[in-house]
Amino acid sequence: MPHLMMEAIDSTWPSPYCGRSVTVLNPTTGITVQATVMDKCMGCEGSSIDLTAALFNAVAPKCDGRCGGFQWWFN
Question: Which residues neighbour 44 within 8 Å (Cβ) at sequence distance 6 or greater?
Fold first, then answer.
């Protein structure tokens, strides 16, 4: 998750968001994956998130590098 989002609710570490489940949706393909928040992304801005290689390949198999338009939410 974006570091500013994780730090906004609590300055302690680990963040209360750690361990929470999220759904990530690629609206172009309709592919969704489930993920668990593990850490903060220092390079992510706004609501951008960083995925493991396996999750990224599952939700965006035809995308190289950074991709936009994804949606995500807490379960």
Answer: 1, 2, 3, 50
Q: CA-to-CA distance for 41 and 29, rounded, in angstroms? A: 25
Residue 49 confidence class, pLDDT cut points 50, 70, 90: very high
pTM for this predicted structure: 0.86
Contact 42, 1 (CB under 8 A): no
Q: How far is CA 58 from CA 27, 55, 69, in A?
A: 13, 5, 16
Residues 61 and 74: their CA atoms lie apart, in Å, by 23
Residue type, 37: V
